[in-house]
Amino acid sequence: MSWTKFYCEMDCRRHPFSCINEKLYMDMADRLVEDGYAHAGYNTIHIDDCWMERQRDSTGRLVADRSRFPSGIGALADYMHQRGLKLGIYEDYGTKTCAGFPGSYGYLKIDAQTFAEWKVDYLKLDGCNVDIRLMAQGRFIDKIMILDNRIANT
């Protein structure tokens, strides 16, 4: 079982207790362990949309929002793993995520490598901003299977 919080609150100054940031996810991890939820089977915390910068870096990689995740996603995954938890993360197969951040279309290989390097355990792949013609032709499923294989091979 997993826990996810979805609400794209990104203004940490105005909303320090509900803003999507590494402290919020660390606090959730601590609560799951300390309050017994992890023991009851809640072993995965999932970061949903809005966790990344609006642009990929110069090498084409996704980058966590530097002000809200200053230690990076890899460090957050390590924090979860040290507590016996898993980290899930959100991305979108389309050109952009539902909230307008960079999608994986055209970047499947590098995104799979990036998530593997960060030691992300679970990927939620959404379908916003996907070319409907690709879906109608069944090419969407083929691409998802390619991504699945790339992640499995990392």
TrEMBL record:
InterPro entries: Aldolase_TIM, GH, Glyco_hydro_27, Glyco_hydro_27/36_CS
CDD domains in the record: GH27 (cd14792)
Known EC number: 3.2.1.-
Cited SUPFAM superfamilies: (Trans)glycosidases
Domain of life (superkingdom): Eukaryota
Family designation: Belongs to the glycosyl hydrolase 27 family.
Protein name as catalogued: Alpha-galactosidase
